[in-house]
Amino acid sequence: METVRFVVVRAGGVNYMEGKMSAKLTDGEKQILLRLSREAIESAVRGKPLPPLDVESLTPTLRERGASFVTLTIHDELRGCIGALEAYQPLADDVREHAVAAALQDPRFPPVSESELNRIKIEVSRLSAPQELRYTTSEDLLKKLKPHVDGVILKHGPRKATFLPQVWEKLPEPSVFLDQLCHKMGARPDLWRNTKLQVYTYQVEEFHELN
Prior knowledge:
This protein is an alpha+beta fold. It has two domains: 8-128, Hypothetical protein ph0010, domain 1 (Glycoprotein, Type 4 Pilin); 131-203, 2-Layer Sandwich (Dna Ligase, domain 1). Helix content is 28%, strand content 22%. It contains six helices and nine strands, in the order βααββαββαββααββ. The strands form two sheets. The protein has a five-stranded mixed beta sheet with strand order 1-3-2-4-9, covered by helices on one side. A four-stranded antiparallel beta sheet has the order 5-8-6-7, covered by helices on one side. A hairpin with a 2-residue loop joins strand 6 and strand 7. Helix 1 (27-45) packs across helix 3. Mean pLDDT is 91; it is low at 1-6 and 11-19.
């Protein structure tokens, strides 16, 4: 059974600009990002420097700023997942950076070993810019969430947590989804029911290795 993705988020504020994801990636661009992820992980795990990135050979979409998460699994079990909610560097660089971080820096797991490389499956999620979800009551919040579409960010004071849209696969009930996200944030699971939280939503373009 696939493990629910409790993602580790890179540090950063939650001062998001409204905006939408640019044109969808082509199949060729997706394959390039998966290849770059694989090369970066294999080099890092083996203690070698990352291969140089030929920026001029990349498409404009891969050179523009983009935010991404990289998820690693072995036999559908989570092995690492790290990403950023804000776009601060070219998408190709962002994916490479988070691929290495997911393999070596996820605090929930030991670093990926060389013997695991052939079993690792890589999934990349390209994020749209998060937008604030305005709501009045907890019931209104439940109505406005879009299961299987929205990634959700909750923020309460200094605490912040997110679930990618893929988590809806394991937590399809919106109330349970929010309970678990509050728990991940380090708060009471029912905090969202009686406290007004800052809520942001985003969408992802997800793709993964086939083998």
